[in-house]
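Data availability excerpt. The first of two example chains:
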Amino acid sequence: MATTTLQGKRIAFLATDGVEEVEYVQPREAVENAGATAELVSLKPGTIQAFNHLDQGKTYDVDVTAADADAAGYDALVLPGGVANPDFLRTDPDAVRFVQAFFAAGKPVGVICHGPWTLIEAGVVSGRRITSWPSLRTDLTNAGATWVDEQVVTDGGLISSRNPDDLPAFCAALVDRFAAVD
């Protein structure tokens, strides 16, 4: 029997082509299994192409574009990684504004692997404690964050994780933190 701790919650997943498939699929399944409605927000309508490291994965249907999405309609945000995905997102002004709106409203945000690149562009990591894929350490430190090498780091409403190996702990932390949202 699935838990209903996120019943009535609406969670946005911001991703585009190049998303690491497992970092999108497992957190989405976790919040949906907990009772939430999840929606894929992306840069363009249609579908996005996921990857398993460098191998093509499945495609996923986009629910709404970042240009048309309203952060006010969501309870939380998840930013999956992959190398290409956050690199594309951070260059899109609508995606960056969408991320900034969650932080401005004090809503929880989950991010994994290379996903913090989008947070850096959004200007929301300074003064925060965060983890990521190790190669982002310098980028995050230069943006004013304190980078740590831990499985899951929670700093206020920001939940971060390093890589797919951390997904069980990351997914549990997302459900717990998102359930605390009124």
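And the second chain:
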Amino acid sequence: MPTLSTMLDQPLTHSFTPGKREGTTILKLVGPLTLSSIFGFQNEFRSHTPQVMIVDLSESPYMDSAGLGLLMNYYVSAESHGRKLLLAGTNQRIDSLLEMTKVHKVLKTFPSVEAAEASF
């Protein structure tokens, strides 16, 4: 099992792909979503405004408060414009962060992208 320090050293890569339904975009993140990794893609992330954005975190081992803040800011903006943000594939570490910060009451999480797409 990777240690926290080795997780933090991993780069963050991302890709946007169309979902199965029109107006849905899947953002696949690979690597940790942290303060040091979000600068490379946060503006691109914010500029994507599909009706439904599903963030696939199945290959993201760790998220810090900056990563959570980025997702929450996107969520607030999306909600105020009638759009949705859904999370998919969160691991136990990320689920714990969401619960500890009470964000799990706001951000909807699903075990997979397929489950997220089937929810609407």
